[in-house]
Amino acid sequence: MDYKLLRRHLHQSFICRQAISNIKNIVVATNAAISGLAELRSKSSRPIRHKTQSSPNPSVNFRDLYKKYNNGFTEPAVAELNSVNHFFNSADVKYEWSAGRFMDVPGESLKAKYSQQLETRIGYSGKKFPGKTYIPFELVNGLPEVAFLGKSNAGKSTLLNNLTTSQKRISLESTARSSRWAGFTKTLNSFNVGNELRIVDTPGYGFNSSIGQGDLTMQYLKERKELARTFLLISAEQGFGEHDLQIVDFMRDNGIPFEIVFTKMDKIRNIEKFEQSMERDRKFLQSTMARILFTNSSTSKSCKKRYGIDILRYVIFESCGLEPGLKPSRKKPQ
Ligand SMILES: Nc1nc2c(ncn2[C@@H]2O[C@H](COP(=O)(O)OP(=O)(O)OP(=O)(O)O)[C@@H](O)[C@H]2O)c(=O)[nH]1
Ligand SMILES: [Mg+2]
């Protein structure tokens, strides 16, 4: 036997075996790596998201929330809600006036001029007005007003747009100008709704507001005879702040009737946490004797509709002394 040949053969078969075992090792290693990766992937992969768990749709709780926090108030019947909705959906909404000073609010300087006659109603020897009154007709027959009050960026202007946009529309009409910049609204701005009532948007307090704006709003709240109800808006994301509590005290001290409206409910991801904060404020909220409403003016994947508007519309109607079933004197042009 050729020893040399045998060695070469053995050497070749050794290389061959080594190569085979290397390949086997590679295959085993690759398999292990693949299964390891799969295991790793299965461990690190996110659990399947159950929509209702991770992003609870606040809509589920709107009605329950309303019932829970408005114990002493009767719930309006569905027919009443529908009828008031019909009013707002069909009413023509018009911007009417802005005022940077209280005396610029229509009727206020006239009222100052005729204040004595208005108080005493004693005949006035001067000019007679149409309808044979001694006082200008608009002062006797002013439309009822409701005001939206709240911190800058609480969502006042957007809520006004939400209220006056027909429910059939997906995007809001921009009747009042809104912005993501806090302190956007600088004056009192009034909008006539169907010639039956007015909604007054006010400058926000807090960030980017001025003392002059604050004084104007306070004077309007205290002295405006037409003001039927004030709606204090609180961002649900932020809850009550120091300034909000001061405003509540101010309204209480001056006998200004008001309701509380939580805005931006679509931003609440954890309704239980929100309720805990409500629980913390419960005593305080009860002491205000105000109704507590919950709304969202923006929609998202988890909050597909604009909720809370029908009940807010109803409360506004009721505050103004208007009866469900009333048709707007001025309808939207078709
Ligand atoms: N997600 C969400 N955003 C809202 C809602 N309401 C208002 N916003 C947003 O909040 C921001 C402020 O809204 P505005 O309506 O301008 O707030 P405002 O209270 O009028 O603010 P000032 O005029 O500055 O006092 C805007 O970017 C709105 O789009 C809501 O319900 N949900
Ligand atoms: Mg505004």
UniProtKB/TrEMBL annotation:
One of its GO terms (cellular component) is mitochondrion. Gene3D superfamilies: P-loop containing nucleotide triphosphate hydrolases. Residues 142-322 form the EngB-type G domain. The keyword Transmembrane helix does not apply. GO terms for molecular function: GTP binding; metal ion binding. It holds the Pfam family MMR_HSR1. PROSITE patterns: G_ENGB. InterPro entries: EngB_GTPase, G_ENGB_dom, GTP-bd, P-loop_NTPase, Small_GTP-bd. Keywords: GTP-binding, Magnesium, Metal-binding, Nucleotide-binding. This is EngB-type G domain-containing protein. It comes from Torulaspora globosa.
